[in-house]
TrEMBL record, chain A:
GO terms for molecular function: ATP binding. The lineage of its organism: Bacteria, Bacillati, Bacillota, Clostridia, Eubacteriales. This is ATP-binding cassette domain-containing protein. It comes from Gemmiger gallinarum. The keyword ATP-binding applies. Keywords: ATP-binding, Nucleotide-binding, Transport.
TrEMBL record, chain B:
Pfam families: ABC2_membrane (PF01061). It comes from the Bacteria. This is Transport permease protein. InterPro entries: ABC2_TM, ABC2_TM_bact-type. PROSITE patterns: ABC_TM2. PANTHER family: INNER MEMBRANE TRANSPORT PERMEASE, TRANSPORT PERMEASE PROTEIN. Belongs to the ABC-2 integral membrane protein family. The keyword GTP-binding does not apply. It is a multi-pass membrane protein. The chain crosses the membrane at residues 60-84, 90-115, 136-159, 171-194, 201-220, 261-280. Keywords: Cell inner membrane, Cell membrane, Membrane, Transmembrane, Transmembrane helix, Transport.
Length: 429, 291
């Protein structure tokens, strides 16, 4: 734990956030009346998201379930955890985007949150105008921006284009400008959600350097959420691991990463997906995955000679000529490994439960623990519209029975290519 | 700067406490004031967005009421032959229409606050009220431009011998304008709070505002309802009757401005505004969970 002789700047006590499951607002009055009328007659609600278990309606789930945390001035605190562990919810409450259900957070100083790069940027306005706009949105007065303007422009490397509307900027310039504004705020606390994942490598390093300075030399406090363990290592002085809405570890960065990696659960072979959250708003509406099973397995540990058989069930709410699927594979520290080539699961009609079984060959993966996301989409990958992508991480482990190989070394990456094909080999001449 | 932060942080007190949503009037006006620069920038942005890449640009601000007034003049004055209290009909319609446009744009531009900005609101915190306030101020500036045009036409009619003159109600006009803006803002933020649950309310509102115009003395004066006391009474219940009548009485010399009606309208505005702010501040804390 951090030393107690320093000043606490964030104190989180008993923080809870509850979300309701099932149908929530955002509809139209007609829809609500329709749903009400259907319920009165005991019929199925015509507006329910397909495949949802209505028995769960009105039930709640705790995105944060009693979080206590004290952050001291000048710390760079990393927050890691699986998807759905509560990281984003914690940041949203800290940034005052939504209110907690219970508990409280006490803060000293202003919070500048960067949950996204370039929030509030307007395409029609010039770079300079956007600096003022973005600064003001993040809580700076005009005078404060004036004082920092030259530094911001210099850091952004956009000096020549500063009076050009940002719609003419490349995406890289856009990101640089946006980060420059946020990094030069006078706020005492900075909250960042993986914003460094964008931009080119050189600029990423520059940003990380800047953030370290902000925390180390300027005495400000940085909260950083990331899936990228190497940036966590580089930036953070302390790290907490969230799991199922609670803090399960708080302290040393390396230990935290080890704890995080252990949250991969390879003992689960059946997943219920109907009520888990989705990667984006539209996912799970027109098509919804209901279950996923590792077929004929007690645990999801696979020998690298073994084929992985996976069965999914799903429903659609409208006819599809073809439904496409791919797996997004990640190592257990969340670094991406690769994707499978998309496959067509065939046409689908509403009203039926579809069962698809497929085989994945993990023989290319080096020994270790992995997880994948399932991505279902409409049409070709190039112009795909995501139909469903649960945030669930389907974990599995690959073991090797090959005695000619030593234990997989971390420096080898994740891919175990087949042996090269020896064309000729022999003594010269 | 590090030193300054040190003192800021070490002199003890917590500056912000984030708690569950409690109470009905939980709004930090001091904080809103600290974000005044943001309001100014939003107003500038509203203009930039409105007129960049348009052919006529800012001329739209003037063309819109001008064409509407001409149209009203032809349809309601010419074809329907409605009374205009004996004032030049063109000026009569322009006065009513300018005030009404001001009011309706305040409502229409604020009614969508939460839904239209959910992207930004979901990513960063700033006092949400800055958004509708800046929209109302944008409408105010548009109104002032239109009012300047009204003054030009007024001068033209005045010097060509039309029977118009200013009255003492002129002194009430600034208050009336502020009131009109606050009424539009109040109604707008009430609607915007409700649209987080029911999206179709936004459509109902733009339609409702159109209907509201016809029960306000925009295309006819209140005095035409003189023969029917019941209608005239109902008309006085409309909080927009007083501002329009006062504006006309003040600038054209004839109209049905009354003190009682004015006071009623002011009270109505205050109630709508307080209700709006209360609803708004309740919704802003958790609306991101339901959008």
């Amino acid at each position: 734990m951090a030393s107690n002789n320093r000043t606490p700047v964030i104190q989180v006590t008993g923080l809870k956030k509850q979300y309701k499951l099932g149908q929530i607002g955002g509809g139209t009055l007609t829809h609500d009346l329709q749903s009400w009328w259907a319920r009165v007659r005991g019929k199925e609600d015509p507006n329910t998201v397909i495949g949802t278990d209505t028995r769960l309606f009105g039930q709640t789930f705790m995105a944060l379930n009693g979080v206590d945390l004290t952050v001291y001035q000048g710390e760079a605190l990393g927050i890691i955890g699986r998807n759905g562990a509560g990281k984003s919810t914690l940041l949203k409450i800290l940034s005052r985007i939504t209110a907690p259900t219970e508990g409280e957070i006490r803060l000293k100083g202003r919070v500048a949150s960067m949950l996204e790069v370039g929030t509030g940027f307007n395409n029609e306005m010039t770079g300079r105008e956007n600096i003022y706009m973005n600064g003001a949105i993040l809580g700076m007065t005009k005078a404060e921006v004036d004082a920092k303007l030259d530094q911001i422009i210099e850091f952004s490397e956009c000096g020549d284009f500063i009076d050009t509307p940002v719609k003419r900027y490349s995406s890289g310039m856009f990101v640089k400008l946006a980060f420059a504004v946020a990094a030069h705020l006078d706020s005492e606390i900075m909250v960042m959600d993986e914003v460094l994942a964008v931009g080119d490598m050189k600029f990423q390093q520059k940003c990380l350097g800047k953030m370290s300075d902000v925390a180390g030399q300027e005495g400000r406090t940085v909260l950083y959420v990331s899936h990228n363990m190497s940036t966590i290592r580089q930036l953070c002085t302390r790290c907490v691991v969230l799991d199922k809405g609670r803090v399960i570890f708080d302290g040393d960065v390396e230990q935290a990463i080890a704890v995080y990696m252990d949250t991969t659960d390879v003992n689960v072979v059946h997943y219920d997906l109907a009520d888990v959250s989705r990667m984006n708003q539209s996912a799970g509406k027109r098509l919804r995955l209901e279950t996923l099973d590792f077929v004929d397995k007690e645990s999801s540990v696979f020998a690298d000679t073994e084929k992985m058989r996976i069965r999914i069930t799903w429903r659609v709410s409208e006819p599809f000529a073809g439904v496409h699927m791919k797996m997004n594979l990640h190592y257990r520290d969340s670094s991406p490994v690769g994707i499978t080539h998309p496959v067509d699961l065939g046409p689908a009609q509403p009203g039926k439960l579809y069962v698809s079984e497929f085989e994945f060959d993990p023989s290319l993966l080096g020994e270790g623990q992995y997880f994948f996301y399932l991505d279902i989409f409409d049409g070709a990958l190039a112009q795909a519209v995501c139909l469903d992508k649960p945030v669930t991480e389907f974990a599995f482990e690959v073991t090797s029975g090959d005695l000619s190989m030593p234990e997989w070394a971390s420096g080898w990456g994740r891919i175990h290519f087949p042996p090269v094909k020896v064309l000729t080999s022999g003594a010269e001449g | 700067m590090a030193e300054q932060l040190q003192t800021n942080a070490s002199n003890g007190e917590w500056t912000t406490i984030i708690r569950p949503r409690t109470g009905w009037f939980d709004i930090d006006l001091q904080e809103l004031w600290r974000y005044r620069d943001l309001i100014v920038l939003f107003v500038k942005r509203n203009f930039a967005v409105l007129y960049k890449q348009t052919i006529l640009g800012p001329a739209w601000v003037l063309l819109n009421p001008l064409l509407t007034s001409v149209l009203f003049n032809v349809v309601f004055g010419g074809i329907a032959g409605l009374s205009t209290d004996g004032t030049p009909s063109f000026l009569f319609y322009m006065a009513g229409n300018t005030v009404w446009t001001f009011f309706s744009s305040c409502i229409n531009n604020t009614a969508n606050t939460f839904v239209a900005n959910s992207q930004v609101f979901g990513k960063v915190y700033f006092p949400r009220l800055t958004m509708p306030i800046s929209q109302a101020l944008t409408s105010l500036i548009n109104f002032l431009i239109q009012a300047a045009m009204f003054v030009l036409f007024w001068l033209y009619f005045f010097f060509t011998g039309a029977d118009i003159h200013l009255t003492a109600w002129m002194w009430a006009v600034p208050l009336v304008l502020v009131q009109t803006m606050l009424l539009g803002l109040g109604v707008g933020i009430i609607v915007s709070s409700l649209t987080t649950k029911y999206r179709d309310l936004a459509i109902a509102v733009s339609f409702g505002v159109q209907l509201w115009m016809y029960v306000s003395p925009v295309v006819y004066p209140l005095s035409t309802l003189g023969e029917s006391p019941r209608l005239a009474f109902l008309m006085r219940l409309n909080p927009m009757t007083a501002p329009i009548e006062i504006f006309r009485t003040a600038t054209l010399g004839t109209g049905s401005a009354e003190m009682g009606m004015f006071v009623y309208s002011l009270v109505f505005t205050a109630v709508a505004l307080v209700l709006g702010v209360v609803l708004f501040s309740r919704i802003e804390k958790t609306f991101m969970d339901t959008v």
